[in-house]
Amino acid sequence: MREGSPTEELRADHDHALAEIERIEVAVAHVAASAACQAELRVQIRTRIEQLRGDLSLHFRKEEEALFPEVREMIAEGAPRGDIIGAFFAEAADDDMSAHHLLRQRLQEMIVLIETAEETGAQDCQWAEGLKPLASAAGDLLTRHADKERDVIFPMIERMLTPEQLAAAGERMRRLTTGLAWSSS
User: Fold this and answer.
1) What is d(CA 96, CA 101) in angstroms, rounded to the nearest whole number?
2) What is the pTM of this model?
3) What is the pLDDT of residue 94?
């Protein structure tokens, strides 16, 4: 694995997301333990969750649209042991796509819970109690996702793809990142 490779960038994304979900879990636990919930705490937590959702959305696109297609193309071109590698990668990638979907769903559920508390003008911390299991589930799911990619999927990709193929995936990732940065300005 080369420094600055697509898989290294994705690992850094994982580290960032894991640190952020941990900060969210700590903030939610703190609010849930409070006697009174200030509206600004809900706004801060919601903002963090929305930022994490955006960061993970870009991360998932980098995997789904930039890196994984390179592997699929290599397999389709008849790489040695491509049938075995293809079957394994297809299963691992399908599992990864499922994790992406579940993480998106958990984060959306967290936002909806906070929005409901905001709409009802809730002054108690009940919303934070409801958020604790969702934040914990999202954290567990994100940890399993990052571990599987770090330990299984990325090492396999790093062994399978040539430096040119990794560079092509990296270029697609840069275009995705730049495209999103321009569209959100």
Assistant:
1) 9
2) 0.84
3) 66
